[in-house]
Amino acid sequence: MRARIAAEYALLREGYGAVEHAEAEGWDWFRLPPYPLPEGWLAGGAPCAAAPVVFPVKPEYPGATPYGFLMPAGMTFRGAAPNNTGAPPKTVPFPGDWMHFSWQCEEWQACNDPKMGANLLTWVRSFAERLSQGA
After folding, report:
1. With pLDDT > 90 as the criterion, what percentage of the chain qualifies?
2. Is pLDDT of 57 > 90?
3. Alpha carbon distance 37, 33 (integer Å)
4. ω into 62 cis (within 30 of 0)
5. How many Å is the maximal CA-CA distance in the chain?
6. Judging by DSSP bridges, how do beta strands 20-24 and 27-36 pair with one another?
7. In what order do the strands lie in the sheet with 46-47?
8. Which residue, among 2, 24, 4, 1, has the nearest Cα to 110 in the 3D structure?
9. Secondary structure of residue 24 in the 3-state scheme
C-alpha cells in the first residue's frame, strides 16, 4: 500500500471504524461499515438508516480527484430509483451487487500532508450531500 493511501486509510478508520481496503487492477478500494443515510432511503421497501458504501481511488490519487461511490443495488429514495446511478465503473473487489452514484467534490485541493486540505475523509463526508439529494 502506498504511504499516502496508508495515511488516509488511518484517517478513514478514525472517522468510520472498521473500514476495509482492497487493491484491484491498480486501484485502491475502500468499504465503509454502514454509512448513515438521510431519512427517506429504503432497502427492500423498508426504511434504511445506514448502508455499506464502497468507493474507488485511482492510481493517480491525490492528483486525480476521486469520483463516484457505490451502495447496494436496489436501494431507493422514497420509493424512487435514484438518478445518476448505474453499474460500477470497474470490478468491485467486495462481495455484493452495487450501484454507482455519480458524485464529485466541487473543490478538491489536496496537499502533500493528507491531514491538510482535501483527503479521503473529507471525500467520504461529502457523500452525505449527494445522499440528501435523494432521487
Report:
1. 58
2. yes
3. 12
4. yes
5. 44
6. antiparallel
7. 46-47, 41-43, 76-77
8. 4
9. strand
The number of folded domains in the chain is: 1
Report angle CA 24, 37, 98 to the nearest 5 degrees: 30
The answer to whether 33 and 124 are in contact (CB under 8 A) is no
- Which amino acid appears at position 28 of this protein? D
How high is the pLDDT of residue 135? 65
3 state SS of 21: strand
**In the β-sheet with 69-72, what is the strand arrangement from edge to edge?**
20-24, 27-36, 50-57, 69-72, 98-101, 85-86
How confident is residue 33, by pLDDT bands cut at 50, 70 and 90?
A: confident
Give every CB contact of residue 107 below 8 A, 6+ residues apart in sequence: 118
| Structural domain of 48 | 3-132
Query: What confidence score (pLDDT) does residue 8 get?
Result: 92
What's the pLDDT tens digit per position in 62-113?
888 999 999 999 999 998 888 877 767 778 999 999 999 989 887 788 888 8
Rounded CA-CA distance 57/128 in Å is: 18
